[in-house]
Amino acid sequence: MKILVTGGLGFIGSHTVVELQQKGFDVIIIDNLSNAGIEVLEGITAITGIAPEFEKLDLKNKVDVSDFFSRHSDIGGVIHFAASKAVGESVENPLLYYENNINTLVYVLQELSNKDNANFIFSSSCTVYGQADTLPITESAPVKPAESPYGNTKQIGEEIIRDTCHINNHLQAIALRYFNPIGSHPTAHIGELPIGVPQNLVPFITQTAIGMREQLAVFGNDYPTEDGTCIRDYIHVVDLAKAHVVALERLINKNNTENYEVFNLGTGTGSSVMEVIESFERVSGKKLNYRITDRRPGDVIAAYADTTKANKVLGWKAKSTLDDAMASAWKWEQKIRN
Ligand code: WQD
């Protein structure tokens, strides 16, 4: 059985390809290389010893998507990562996000809807919860009006999949709502490669420490939290990747109880920005240069997962600690900059 991984050269996609190959799956990657370099293929191969099949293809091109599926009738599952994911960019250019994140999803689902049996894993995000009323956040927490077009594309994407599964019981789907993915593969052959100035905390920390950035700006320390900084659930990207394989196997083995299921993927532990900085300083032995600045618009105060459903139903649990993840991120940063 061959598994299609769209956006498979990206940060979470590439780590998931490694885990799929190490579980014995044949993988074919589609990526348009808009946010990832072809050299990631070498990184994956260096880890697993198996070069995944790869096709450069833009899923916005409906004809190309249809042609791909007609040439690969042996695809037994799809893990769909391909999407734009920068919150700030989505506010400035919403149509780019609606075209790239929604049209592509529709075209892939249209192809899967023609198959007798299709297994589909969707890359979603805890951003759908906005500022949850109750912490930790369970999958039954209400989906709040999105704070950004990016977040809205995840909400709309889930609704599109839910509606499609409702009328097509040949389509089995799971949406995985990620909390904050961080870190890199322990071999440092693959990792996070943000293009331009990193929007996310951890790559900004490691780029500051390596000397690429002058200083980290901590976006506010006047929040109603213990140390005044925002709290998030930082999950090691390898733990997250492993969850995708477990979810896919749930569908392949027909262990799912409904043909559309949702799981939160986090550690269940919240960490503040200051705690992340302290973790970095602990594992790297370096003092981080940072200053406190104003809050960033759109930031929620706190978000961390209730992992009961993923632990009990999916049979998956994050194993790595914050220090493990920060150490892997630092190892990767040092490798790619030297
Ligand atoms: C984490 C914390 C910032 C940068 C976003 C998306 C989410 C997912 C992960 C794609 C916040 C603070 C950050 C900096 C800082 N993306 N921070 N200085 O915003 O929780 O989630 O990325 O799937 O969908 O919403 O992650 O890493 O940007 O911020 O102080 O230079 O770090 O204020 O409290 P976020 P983040």
Automatic annotation (TrEMBL):
Residues in domain NAD(P)-binding?
4-326
Q: Does the keyword Zinc apply?
A: no
Q: Which SUPFAM superfamilies match?
A: NAD(P)-binding Rossmann-fold domains
What's any one GO cellular component for it?
cytosol
What is the reaction catalyzed? Answer: UDP-alpha-D-glucose = UDP-alpha-D-galactose
Instruction: State one Pfam family annotation.
Output: GDP_Man_Dehyd
Question: From which residue to which does the signal peptide run?
Answer: none
Q: Out of the domains of life, which is the source?
A: Bacteria
Q: Which cofactor does it need?
A: NAD(+)
Biochemical pathway: Carbohydrate metabolism; galactose metabolism
| Key words, A-Z | Carbohydrate metabolism, Isomerase, NAD
Q: Which GO terms describe its biological process?
A: galactose metabolic process
Which molecular function GO terms apply here? UDP-glucose 4-epimerase activity
**EC category name:** isomerase
The EC number of this protein is 5.1.3.2
Family that this chain belongs to: Belongs to the NAD(P)-dependent epimerase/dehydratase family.
Q: Which PANTHER family match?
A: UDP-GLUCOSE 4-EPIMERASE (PTHR43725)
Q: Its quaternary structure?
A: Homodimer.
What this protein is called in its record is UDP-glucose 4-epimerase
Lineage of source species: Bacteria, Pseudomonadati, Bacteroidota, Flavobacteriia, Flavobacteriales
